[in-house]
Amino acid sequence: MNSHDISQYINILKDHEKYFWTDNEYLQKLANTLKENPQAGVFEVVMASYLRYAGHKIEINDLPGSGGLDYIVTTPNGDIFLLEATTLEESSISEKTGLPDTNYFQGEASGFGLETIRTKLSEKSGQIGRGIKYPVIVAVGSWHANAHLFLGGDAARDAFTGKPKIGVNIKNGTHLGEVSSLEESIFFRFNKRSKKTEHCRRNISAVIFVAFTSAEMTLVGILNPAPLRELDITYFPLLPFLRAKNNPLDEGFIETEWLMYYSGDKGIQKLNLPEDRGNLNLGLKLRIKN
User: Fold this and answer.
1) In a domain, 76, yes or no
2) 21 in a domain, yes or no?
3) pLDDT tens readout for residues 82-106
4) In terms of residue numbers, what domain contains 98?
5) Mean per-residue pLDDT over the chain, rounded
């Protein structure tokens, strides 16, 4: 984990081992993972701890045909969803983005790591298959010094819509504003045969980006606009989720907004950014360029 010592997570690891103390086979597997790939092991444990803190029951996934996803999660009201935790290696991100893993850059950036994230999710989608009857969440985490740039709010927007570009009508030079072909999106793709944009990775209900620093972790979610199994965001109080406000493929544009669930009387609220969350981009409206 480079400079991020595994020892800072020792209390979480001990608590996790205590929670699963009767499952010797799993604990041995986890010990091997922590030895061979500390980041993957720690991230798996951290996500389980986060879900337990939210009041959910965690079990090791043993469902047939579920592609080896990490956890079966049962909510306090008895609903079930599955979670897979996966990490992005610092060296791979640095190589593909040019971002060093030594200096923390302030602010947000656009387009970093999109290909790496999309490839990772394609692998997970193929692993999961389409027969699972519960919602599936894939959590993507990194301890890269600049993880906030490719797993933060702007990154979530770009992963959802593809990196926006300025559109110009080549016939008359009219500016069309920001446009996207959705080709870089994690939940849309361009079908070269039909020449149309379509939904993809529908067996992933939502993705959660998790960026670690030495002091904290930040989380943002992205909801699949056409999942096989829809995720209820009330399972995740105070976690902002990006979603499509409209039906993009029917309407020819994509409009996004951030939602967050507050326990109690407030319920699900649209975030009025940047007042509510200064580190998240505003919802936006993009033309779809075919």
Assistant:
1) yes
2) yes
3) 999 999 876 666 555 666 556 655 5
4) 6-288
5) 81
- Residue 217 phi, psi (nearest 5): -130, 145
d(CA 128, CA 289): 30
Backbone angles phi, psi at 245, to 5 degrees: -80, -20
pLDDT digits (tens, 9 = 90+) for 99-152: 655 665 554 444 557 888 888 999 999 988 777 899 999 999 998 877 888 888
Here the tokens at position 37 are 């790939």
Residue 31 resides in a domain: yes
Are 179 and 205 in contact by the 8 Å Cβ rule? The answer is: no
- How many domains does the chain fold into? 1
The rounded distance, in Å, linking the Cα atoms of 68 and 71 is 9
- pTM exceeds 0.90: no
250 falls in which pLDDT band (50, 70, 90)? confident
Q: Within a 10 A sphere around the Cβ of 28, how many other Cβ atoms?
A: 10
Confidence tier at 187 by pLDDT (50, 70, 90)? very high
CA distance 58 to 235: 13
Residue 1 lies in a domain: no
CA 170 to mean position of chain CA atoms: 36
